[in-house]
């Protein structure tokens, strides 16, 4: 546990062997399955099923089996015999790796995480960000690794998938290191808590479960405060006595001893814990615009033979609040990208209205340049804004001092979220498109985003699994994908948010 930027993601990277510590060593035994917060795969043309099976090497064996089958049907007798022998060896290898039962196990895990068979047959490039993350999670769980390192595993999962994951991790017999803001998941799975306290530059270890940790941490804070108050009271009395004795030459040494004792008293207790800084998250002051700054008609999108959605009409009025709902893969992110001009529809068109200014927040932070610094990303978003003003905005989002010179690529997920939101402040956007803006945020930062959602006066199109974000938005309309049905918002749709 720890606030965004405290080092949670960095710690898991070091444990997984994907980062080097400045000091100390990591010793491992047994297989480790690591789910990074922002997983990236090299070949997006790989089928989702093969990506999952690759965790045990089954994808390559099955590929060779298919080639051997083709060779067995050859007209050449030597080729047939060679591939028959090859097929037998591969079947033995397949058996060692778990055989076809393992393939069924992989499909079962994928299905439990909301990845139906039709999705498993698609290349990764055709999947949404949420679906690709589910594929990576399914791959890690299927791997059979003894120790699991999971960084925000519930991101992009619906309520049913989170419930299944909770039961899976609770029954996992190996080790588990998890970063999560899902308190129900933590309560069900952990028996030790490491709290990274950036203010005190320490890691507190609690050998208890989640609820006991919360109670013990509160008790520890009260104890530290009480011990510090007692030490300060005793030190004050010693210093007052030393002042009285210092006037007499014969008592000078005794006075010095009292001063040293007072310093030791204070050094032996921790200062009262500094309060965590809170980011003052806000959205931009929207530029003036016409009555309907954004419309779109007859939008459709397909990837190969897979139809994502068709004949979607959208009309965004000034100051309107719209939430987009649909299962993973229904095209929510794709619709936002098309409306934002980042992707072209197969049919239909997007029509900007008078004065339209769009601010787009991407769930995978693709709007950030990972190779440029925090300050350089802000300069790109506001080329006419002075560095002093950019630093002021960054400061309100908890980027100060040398933090602004960090490459965006080394930031934690929560820090990337804050930086992406900070760039929106410079946009003067009157239509905000927000794709899962509360993912990766600690509870305090999430609350700030919800307040910003509530107070923003421009139009918002929101994609989220977060019921609290929808409550803060107070939407007036809903778009249901893949059908593209638009309807007035009612509480009947609330139950769909966590499931979408």
From TrEMBL:
Pfam family of the protein (one): ABC_tran_Xtn
Recorded coiled-coil stretches: 215-248
Domain spans labelled ABC transporter: 294-500
Any GO molecular function: ATP binding
Keywords (A to Z) from UniProt: ATP-binding, Coiled coil, Nucleotide-binding, Repeat
Key word Repeat present: yes
SMART domains xref list: AAA
InterPro entries: AAA+_ATPase, ABC_tran_Xtn, ABC_transporter-like_ATP-bd, ABC_transporter-like_CS, ABCF, P-loop_NTPase
PANTHER family noted in UniProt: ATP-BINDING CASSETTE SUB-FAMILY F MEMBER 1 (PTHR19211:SF14), ATP-BINDING TRANSPORT PROTEIN-RELATED (PTHR19211)
Protein name: ATPase subunit of ABC transporter with duplicated ATPase domains
Organism of derivation: Nonomuraea soli
